[in-house]
């Protein structure tokens, strides 16, 4: 079931794009990433609306009033905040959903990349059984697994003076952090939903970076491309607050 619904469509889409793009598997992954971003566009719009509503809510008089009224009563404050969320139709975990939905895509893409880049006769035989009839398998396999300095089937390292530098993994951490920072509204005291979302967005760059460091560079390339497309998409729609990347000063009450 997993192969039929996830792996096979991904493998065949990658092969189809690979065939069009002059047998360049790196470009195929980048274009595939763009297609995924376009398919998940409705979810992105939903996330943007949720984030915008959260920002508007945090500036509202009603929100400020309950912050003052229930200051020091975390449980009561959280209950009142959830009531307001429900009234306004806001999902406080909305900013996390696109990241969570990516996990099946990540798992599927990793397996699809490994399967598509078959090398041994056994692997090629297995791959051929998953290829749709309209794909010219005989003319494509084995695939060219080189892209820039990378072997897309292996973890990425750029060797400088004998030292392997995980360039893509570093870019994955940076772009994941930037993306989450730009798109997550600031958490208010007692706002457990927003605080959990921010905590998740803090850990996620390191998780993605570890995956990029440990697994095939094709997966790392997908991460970087997806993050960059997402940031560009938000920026083009005018919903990016670049100042949120800067550290904020905490004012101490006198």
Question: Could you describe the 3D structure shown?
Answer:
The protein is mainly alpha-helical. The protein has one domain (2-245). Helices cover 67% and strands 4% of the residues. It has helices spanning 2-20, 25-39, 41-59, 61-69, 74-88, 97-116, 121-128, 137-140, 167-183, 192-214, 217-236; strands at residues 146-147, 150-151, 158-160, 163-165. A two-stranded antiparallel ribbon has the order 1-2. It has a two-stranded antiparallel sheet with strand order 3-4. A hairpin with a 2-residue loop joins β1 and β2 (150-151). The longest helix is centred in the last third of the chain and has 23 residues, at 192-214. The N and C termini lie far apart (62 Å).
Sequence-ordered SSE layout with sheet pairings:
Elements: H1 2-20, H2 25-39, H3 41-59, H4 61-69, H5 74-88, H6 97-116, H7 121-128, H8 137-140, E1 146-147, E2 150-151, E3 158-160, E4 163-165, H9 167-183, H10 192-214, H11 217-236
Antiparallel strand pairs: 1-2, 3-4
């Amino acid at each position: 079931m997993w192969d039929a619904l996830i792996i096979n469509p991904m493998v065949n889409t990658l092969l189809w794009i690979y065939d069009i793009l002059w047998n360049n598997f790196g470009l195929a992954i980048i274009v595939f990433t763009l297609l995924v971003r376009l398919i998940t566009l409705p979810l992105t719009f939903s996330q943007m609306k949720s984030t915008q509503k959260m920002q508007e809510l945090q500036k509202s008089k009603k929100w400020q009033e309950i912050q003052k009224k229930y200051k020091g009563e975390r449980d009561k404050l959280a209950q009142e905040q959830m009531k307001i969320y429900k009234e306004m139709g806001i999902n406080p975990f909305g900013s996390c959903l696109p990241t969570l939905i990516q996990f099946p895509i990540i798992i599927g893409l990793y397996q699809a990349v490994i399967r598509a880049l078959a090398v041994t006769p056994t692997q090629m035989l297995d791959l051929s059984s998953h290829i749709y009839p309209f794909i010219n398998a005989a003319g494509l396999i084995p695939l060219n697994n080189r892209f820039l300095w990378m072997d897309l089937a292996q973890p990425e390292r750029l060797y400088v003076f004998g030292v392997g530098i995980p360039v893509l993994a570093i870019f994955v951490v940076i772009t994941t952090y930037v993306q989450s920072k730009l798109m997550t509204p600031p958490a208010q005291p007692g706002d457990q939903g927003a605080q959990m979302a921010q905590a998740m967005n803090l850990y996620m760059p390191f998780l993605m970076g570890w995956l990029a460091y440990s697994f095939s560079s094709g997966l790392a390339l997908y991460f970087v491309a997806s993050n960059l497309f997402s940031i560009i998409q938000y920026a083009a729609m005018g919903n990016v607050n670049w100042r949120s990347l800067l550290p904020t000063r905490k004012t101490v009450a006198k």
